[in-house]
Amino acid sequence: MRLIDADKLSARLSRNATPYFTVPDIENAPTIDAVPVVRCESCCYATWAAWANKYSCGQVHGLLVFGDHFCAFGKRERTEGE
Questions:
Q1: For position 50, what pLDDT does the model report?
Q2: Against a cut of 0.90, is the pTM above it?
Q3: DSSP letter assigned to residue 78
Q4: Domain co-membership, 23 together with 41
Q5: Same domain, 75 and 44
Q6: Structural domain boundaries, residue 77
Q7: Are residues 46 and 26 in the same domain?
Q8: Domain check: are 40 and 77 in the same one?
């Protein structure tokens, strides 16, 4: 999968004055620079703190976060298929 820059693709569409995107338009669309986000619920540093009903971050002492939180320390846990 690649992430495309929809703004640049739309700008190209308005220059061509066509009301639709063609497959080559999408295939040739410029990409963006992005990295996958690792959320706390799938991070190898986080542990479940049942008493707080949140995750405890193993990188920042005392930090309790919800599972959908993410940070710069995030490192995905290994799964059986990896």
A1: 93
A2: no
A3: P
A4: no
A5: yes
A6: 35-82
A7: no
A8: yes
Q: Are residues 22 and 58 in the same domain?
A: no
Q: Is 29:43 a contact under the CB 8 Å cutoff?
A: no
Per-residue pLDDT of the chain (82 residues; tens, 9 = 90+): 788 888 888 877 766 666 777 888 888 888 998 877 889 888 999 999 999 999 998 888 889 999 898 888 878 886 655 5
Calculate ∠ Cα 48-66-46, nearest 5°.
40
Q: What is the pLDDT of residue 49?
A: 92
Q: What is the DSSP string of 6-69?
A: HHHHHHHHHHHT-SS--HHHHHTPPB-------BGGGBTTEEEETTTTEEEESSSTT-EE-TT-
Q: CA-to-CA distance for 56 and 25, rounded, in angstroms? A: 45
Tokens, residue 45: 């540093």
Residues 45 and 13 in one domain: no
18 lies in the same domain as 47 = no
